[in-house]
Design goal:
By secondary structure, the protein is of the alpha/beta class. Helix content is 52%, strand content 16%. The strands form two sheets. A six-stranded mixed sheet has the order 1-2-3-5-7-9, sandwiched between helices.
């Protein structure tokens, strides 16, 4: 449990991928790899017709990168490898031939915002504030940036990146990151279940072709996100970033 977990449940064509980490659902390399593997396996599983990605707990959807792991990065390879975990997950979601619904029940930071953006349909609770705090860390939202910018546009992405402050769920909906926002988790879960049930009855061949249309213009992301991972991997080794992570953990 200390290292977190990923669980997959498949029932009546609806696959639910859940992740949990005791530190606000943060994502170390282990969980990123397991999430990526889960999405890739479901992409080819004929029994899975629609995918829900969610985290456990009622408060935080995802706190982004694991600060415990960031402190262990000592060289360029380690840095790039860590951020490639996010790149691989976003690319797996992008390439998946099935619709992915994101259930965002609480706050999302950095990589968590990236997951919300890479989903095809994102439903959230009113408590689901979002934040890109990477600049405070001495890096930037390089890897998740393309997915977020694709959803919210350049202006909103620039705003989130520069001010590094919290933006509430209604701001996220207004700017296209969230599709719908619900008053509470009960209403959110009912909406997610209803949508998943409806989508599970659609023609998978049509969905696969429609996803290709939705993601037109992203064919270079394998290379692009790797380049972005290199940038983050280099910057995270710097004195500024390491001091910030250390001070944050001591709070």
């Amino acid at each position: 449990m200390d290292n977190g977990k990923v669980a997959v449940n498949l029932y009546q064509g609806i696959a639910t991928v859940s992740f949990h980490h005791p530190k606000s659902n943060s994502l170390p390399s282990k969980l990123l790899k397991e999430l990526t593997e889960a999405i890739n396996k479901l992409s080819t599983n004929k029994e899975a017709r629609v995918i829900i990605i969610r985290s456990e707990g009622d408060k935080t959807f995802c706190a982004g990168a694991s600060f415990d792991e960031l402190t262990t990065i000592k060289n360029m390879k380690n840095g790039k490898d860590f951020f490639m975990g996010f790149a691989n997950l976003l690319n797996a979601m992008r390439k998946c031939p099935k619709f992915i619904i994101a259930r965002i029940q609480g706050k999302a930071v950095g990589g968590g915002v990236g997951i919300a953006a890479a989903a095809d349909y994102t439903l959230a609770s009113s408590e689901a504030s979002v934040r890109l705090s990477e600049l405070l860390l001495g890096i930037g939202p390089f890897v998740v940036g393309p997915a977020i910018e694709r959803k919210v546009g350049k202006t909103a992405f620039v705003t989130m990146s520069i001010d590094a402050e919290w933006h509430d769920a209604f701001w996220a909906k207004q700017n296209g990151l969230f599709t719908k926002v619900f008053a509470n988790n009960h209403d959110l879960d009912e909406a997610v279940a209803a949508l998943a049930k409806k989508l599970s009855g659609f023609n998978l061949e049509a969905i696969e072709q429609l996803k290709k249309v939705f993601w037109e213009g992203t064919e270079d992301w394998d290379k692009l996100l790797e380049q972005r991972a290199e940038i983050s991997g280099k910057l995270i080794q710097g004195e500024f970033s390491q001091n910030y992570v250390k001070l944050f953990k001591e709070k």
